[in-house]
């Protein structure tokens, strides 16, 4: 009886291997790129997802299209068993993914993230008008990359350096993205990534309630609820907004007008954010105001999402 009890205690009802929480990039020395590129990852990355997005994204998992289809390639790092044929295959998949071209029979195992909050926000307009997706179905995901293992994310430019020579279309994209104008801080993960308890989610409608986004930065377009509009440009509009919000060669020294209401709009958004995430996310939204934000006013205002005693961070730009 004792032997039977011990045997039952050690029996597993499910012998399937436990699903990996991430599939890391592991470039080998023969890829021609330094291992240090895996350390060149911003602390916070954004992903904008809707029901029309490729793959699936929710508060527990982010899965590529290949992972959703349970394709075997979704479990294999792109750098494993590299030969000429596989390099060409990866280059082709990377080109289709980065250009948002139809995938046809190609299994896309990439998931896109961005370090640019501006780029993610403009994608809300694109999805809302292009697909007719309601704002409450569109969600902004923020992850802290330091919580994940090294190699979970990789910059698109580094992947372009490795695989650009194996697809002529990818080479053209590499030339385009190497300039400042058409670079939008894109980073990729691969396969399935567990983000449960490692992310903050903000529904898009929170940003537009009470006109909050335009109160922060009037350069953003008004959004017409319930009306199907022509899909706005995405990349071109981001370029325009960059130039309008952060003019070059040097901005004027005058502070933006209506600062009190701008900060109030940020504080209203932060009420929908968990306390541990409020400070870094507030910094990114405050950067959308522009470069000339008087720090004294920030510290002196009674804003709940900032600790004035620790206010020593430079303003982030896009």
What characteristics describe this protein?
318 residues; alpha+beta; 2 domains; 3-stranded antiparallel sheet; 12 helices; 9 strands; DUF7587 domain-containing protein; DUF7587
Fold and architecture overview:
By secondary structure, the protein is an alpha+beta fold. It folds into 2 domains: 29-202, no CATH class; 248-318, no CATH class. Helices cover 36% and strands 12% of the residues. The chain has helices at 2-9, 65-68, 84-99, 117-131, 156-163, 168-177, 204-208, 212-216, 235-245, 259-270, 275-287, 295-300; strands spanning 44-49, 56-57, 61-63, 110-114, 139-144, 154-155, 186-190, 192-194, 199-203. It has a 3-stranded antiparallel beta sheet with strand order 1-5-9. A 3-stranded antiparallel beta sheet has the order 2-3-8. A hairpin with a 3-residue loop joins strand 2 and strand 3. Helix 5 runs antiparallel to helix 6 and helix 10 (259-270) packs antiparallel against helix 11. The termini are far apart. Mean pLDDT is 83; it is low at 5-17 and 296-318. Pfam families: DUF7587 (PF24494).
